[in-house]
Backbone:
């Protein structure tokens, strides 16, 4: 199995595991989704700090400190916008987990981001959309009907 | 058919994630490349240590934040305290954050060696099936035939959305 496939599968496992832990912690008698999101990001900050010091592939390891500095100076407004979008996205997704019959359904609906993202990219950056991608988008929208039932 | 609340919340998250991915794309283009771990670190720090304390200011026994009311979170301040004082919740929050950070790093590392980064995203989006199975096993969550069919459709649609050429 190619290394990138294994890593992608591991990432799927990590995201899936995090979703289930979140569902368990924010369920009946648990904490609220907003508080949970904030706490997990507090812990995540330190973990990303550690990751920055790990011997990762050069594409991931280079210019880390430079980009931390650039995030807080040259690109701060854009980085704040990204943080706000991520916060709303994470809180909504975490809040949806406990209300859905199964957390997997929420993750699947959230996967629609690739369709919405492609449409936005087409408008903002004139990114082309092929016929195959249009079929994929239509299929994704249709799948929502089954996901709701 | 009126959409259920969980569905609307998940849809809202899809919208915000897609806007954020376009904003990251724009940032990378404008900056001439960006270290994604550094960006994640700052984004996480802004959410955890700036937005978090700001929300604390609007949380209390008499008034709650607007977002908190919308999402049904009345005891934001107490919940934060509970997460870091309750041993079980502390372990859970650490495990959830570690799993997410691990997933992010695996995905970014996969991007560096894959023929097409979209393929990594397509495989990584199978996380919904992981949470479907783990949710059923550990939390006793229901699994409906129609919804699983919808999930398979969404996964196939994700594959079709990949760019034809690298």
Residues:
């Amino acid at each position: 199995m190619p290394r990138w496939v294994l890593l992608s599968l591991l990432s799927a496992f990590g995201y899936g595991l995090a979703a289930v832990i979140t569902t368990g912690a924010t369920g009946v008698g648990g904490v609220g989704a907003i508080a949970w999101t904030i706490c997990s990001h507090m812990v995540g900050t330190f973990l990303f700090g550690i990751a920055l010091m790990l011997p990762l592939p050069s594409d991931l390891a280079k210019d880390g400190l430079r980009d931390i500095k650039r995030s807080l100076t040259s690109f701060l407004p854009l980085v704040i916008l990204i943080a706000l979008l991520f916060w709303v996205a994470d809180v909504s997704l975490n809040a949806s987990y406990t209300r859905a019959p199964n957390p997997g359904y929420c993750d699947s609906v959230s996967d629609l981001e690739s369709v919405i993202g492609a449409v936005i990219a087409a408008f903002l950056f004139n990114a082309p959309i092929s016929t195959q991608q249009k079929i994929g988008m239509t299929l994704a929208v249709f799948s929502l009907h089954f996901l709701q039932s | 058919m009126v959409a259920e609340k969980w569905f609307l919340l998940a849809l809202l998250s899809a919208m915000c994630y897609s806007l954020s991915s376009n904003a990251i794309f724009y940032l990378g283009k404008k900056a001439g490349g960006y270290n994604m771990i550094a960006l994640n670190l700052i984004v996480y720090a802004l959410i955890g240590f700036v937005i978090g304390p700001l929300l604390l200011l609007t949380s209390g026994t008499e008034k709650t934040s607007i977002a908190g009311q919308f999402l049904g979170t009345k005891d934001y301040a107490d919940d934060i305290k509970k997460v870091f004082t309750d041993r079980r919740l502390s372990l859970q929050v650490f495990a959830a954050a570690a799993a997410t950070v691990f997933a992010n790093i695996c995905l970014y590392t996969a991007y560096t060696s894959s023929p097409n980064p979209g393929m990594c995203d397509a495989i990584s989006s199978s996380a919904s099936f992981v949470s479907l199975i783990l949710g059923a096993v550990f939390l006793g969550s229901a699994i409906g035939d129609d919804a699983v069919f919808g999930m398979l459709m969404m996964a196939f649609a994700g594959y079709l959305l990949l760019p034809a050429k690298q």
The mean pLDDT of chain B is 86. The first helix of chain B runs from residue 5 to 31. Chain B touches chain A through 125 residues (CB under 8 Å).
